[in-house]
Amino acid sequence: MSKGLADGVGVARAGHFETVAQQRAAATLGIWAWLITELLLFSALFLVALIVRIQHPEATVAAAKHLKFWIGATNTVVLICSSLTMSMAIEFSRIGWQRAMVRAMLATAALGGLFLVLKGYEYYADWDEHMMPFLGSRPFALAETPPARLFVNLYYVATILHAVHLFTGIALLLGMTWMAAKAGFLSRHQNWIEVYGLYWHFIDLVWVLAFPILYVVNR
Amino acid sequence: MSASGSVGGTARREPHAPEATLGRKADYLHADSTLRSWFLTTDHKRIAILYLASITGFFVIGAVAAGVVRLALIVPNGAIMTNDTYNKAFTIHGVVMVWFFLIPSIPATFGNFLIPLMIGAKDLAFPKLNLTSWYVFMAGAFFTLVSLVLGGVDTGWTFYAPLSTAFSNTWVLPALIGVTIVGFSSILTGLNFVVTIHTMRAPGMTWFKLPIFVWAHYATSLIFLLATPVITTALILLIMERGFHIGVFDPAYGGDPVLFQHLFWFYSHPAVYIMVLPGMGVISEIVPAFAQKKLFGYRFVAYASIGLASVTFFVWGHHMFVNGQSDLASLVFSALSFAVAVPSAVKVYNWTATIHKGSLRLDTPMLYAMGYIGLFVLGGLTGLYLATLAINQHIHATYFVVAHFHYIMVGGTVLAFLGGLHFWWPKFTGRMYSEPWGRVSAMLIFIGFNVTFFPQFILGYLGMPRRYATYPVEFQLLNVLSSAGATILAAGYIFPMLYLVYSLWFGCKAPANPWNAKGLEWETGSPPPKHNFLSPPAVPRIPYDYPIQAQEAQDQHG
Ligand code: HEM
Ligand SMILES: [Cu+2]
């Protein structure tokens, strides 16, 4: 990873590391370990959703048909595009094109924002359809079978948790973009972009898992 | 038993030990003394001290609650306090002890302090993250304390749904939030350790030269990373269900309460190894030092740590034998639980073999270590009773279980914690504590512990259920005995707090290596300088390079 960097692009060594290579290795291992824990956080939810689907196919399919497939599908495309722009940002950081990198990061954040807007609209449509079983003021209108409710509840927990991750991700990205726009950033902290990029791809990956499990299976 | 001397707490064992080579200002404790320098420190040693202080505070809270429980149980008819108060007392006790003392205790204090020293590094890989994890820990503690101040919780430390989500009228929500947050602190600590052990070892410090303490923390960190997220999911779901009625556990919402138990125990059984593995690491350092003998079967002990950490993920179902899981599942979980005994026994055999024909010194840390081994064996053996399907039907959810897990968790963690605290106290503080007082308290704790918890095996066998404030009159004698034991135990805990604090100002100055122990942490000053070593330490030829090495030949074939 450290090879292939342009001149003037690199990492400033922190005092407790002996070499830059050691520092890079630590950062990479650290982010992978974190991503594994994040994946486990979601996988318990996905596993339960899958089990519910296998055990009660009719009830869950009936409920899943009410999810807004086209919004979900558009959002999948939006996030995949954002992963692409993030990868471009990483490439630009390696060859030292700081302005292009900053623009690619801003584009990534914008696509993330678009996802949240679409998701918000989807929740609004759900609300309109009386699909939120936890709102006493809007009685649940889908088939009131326990598995259907369980499935719908899991859908909300999983998507809210994902949205929280995305929101945090955008905030971090904007903060980092602000710092990355300053002169000399790439010679000291190129590593940050690499590490952060992995986190963004992860958020994307979680949605790519969630979309088929929640929206598509048995459709 | 050679040269254990008379003068309390000097460097008497090694009169020629070099004096600490540092000027006072250079060591990590005195390098800077503003409050800011403590609360914004990124020095792993100072962060360890921050944890030590906070964890001691939680231990006191948990212990007072335990005292309340034992007080209530002196009389059979619940006359001393209401059922409600009783329920809250045992819940506070469990929540605080498990989540805020036992789980973070050894990793966050000794692990933080010692891992970089033991592998010859200047710090953990992510010093700022390390400080963050302490703040996260304190934030979690804050929420839990809020729930206590507002009036307490009555669900027990396990937060079983639907009691915790639908029926309890107490302050469950802040407590749940606190426990969820504290999980992130363990994840961050575990992550930091894994990365540090992988990438920060000094040149020449190969995997099979690492002290067992480091191996044990490596295994523990893997559990932190792989199990904690699952309970975080479970707790988030509980919070959603209680707070927003987005339910997945309560049947009223279409959910399944047994699902909570699966998610809960998938973490919480491995969590018991989060509590015992670091303790095993501590014992594996103390025993060779006080036998002056190489640890028997070094490689086996290392493998056993990883073995335990792996098997422990596959036994959670033994907490649900009577909850309607299929017979086949119960059978499999029972068999796998028996398998846990194998690596556990390996460890015990290796310690015993190390003690055998060593030149034994029964100083305070060693007394704790011997106590630990005894209690752990009894706790482990009774675990086999519980894992046996037919016997489990009879003793499930009785005091037998309570006795079992106290032998394992208190015996296993607290004794190792205290043993380690005495062992490394000179290193942490640069002072020696009073050896006679240390021995008195170690004995008091061992006696007090057995008087408190052994009767509970009998009570459970006779059928006294856990978590009730009242019981049939014929159980009173054993309960009074148990409460009396708890009083002795309390004394045993109070003494160390007094003489250790006293030693901070009045103890003799500690030499760099008061015990003649091996390991890189003893090669630097007591207390160590800010960046751990003044010059890069020389990694030893073999781990546990003690004078007596009778077993070395066998090991190499092992
Ligand atoms: C030798 C290996 C062990 C076996 C076979 C074993 C087996 C069991 C079984 C079957 C139970 C369930 C009892 C019931 O509720 O019916 C149990 C409970 C428990 N065990 Fe173990 N155990 C072992 C080691 C440990 C260790 C090392 C720890 C802790 C460090 C531990 C902590 C606990 C706790 C906390 C409970 C009580 C859970 C509760 O109901 O609240 N066990 N053990
Ligand atoms: Cu268990």
List the helices and strands and how they pair.
The complex is a heterodimer of chains A (219) and B (558).
Chain A: H1 20-55, H2 57-64, H3 69-95, H4 98-128, H5 146-180, H6 185-216
Chain B: H1 35-39, H2 44-72, H3 83-119, H4 127-150, H5 163-167, H6 172-199, H7 212-244, H8 257-291, H9 298-311, H10 327-355, H11 364-387, H12 389-395, H13 399-429, H14 435-462, H15 476-506, H16 552-557
Helix pairs in contact in B: 2-3, 2-4, 2-15, 3-6, 3-7, 3-8, 3-13, 4-6, 6-7, 7-8, 7-9, 8-10, 8-11, 8-13, 9-10, 10-11, 11-13, 11-14, 13-14, 14-15
The complex binds protoporphyrin IX containing FE and copper (II) ion (CU).
Compact description:
With 219 residues, chain A is an all-alpha fold. Chain A has six helices and no strands.
What features would you describe in this structure?
The complex is a heterodimer of chains A (219) and B (558). Helices cover 77% and strands 0% of the residues of chain A. Chain A is built from 6 helices and no strands. Chain A has helices spanning 20-55, 57-64, 69-95, 98-128, 146-180, 185-216. Chain A is mainly alpha-helical and 219 residues long. Chain B is mainly α. Chain B contains 16 helices and no strands. Chain B has helices spanning 35-39, 44-72, 83-119, 127-150, 163-167, 172-199, 212-244, 257-291, 298-311, 327-355, 364-387, 389-395, 399-429, 435-462, 476-506, 552-557. The longest helix of chain B has 37 residues, at 83-119. Chain B is globular, with a radius of gyration of 23 Å. The A-B interface holds A 15-17, 22, 25-26, 29-30, 33-34, 36-38, 40-42, 44-45, 48, 133-134, 136, 145-150, 153-154, 156-157, 161 and B 121-127, 187, 191-192, 194-196, 198-200, 225-226, 228-230, 232-234, 236-237, 240, 244-248, 251, 253-256, 259, 263, 531. Residues 269, 272, 315, 318-319 of chain B line the site of copper (II) ion (CU).
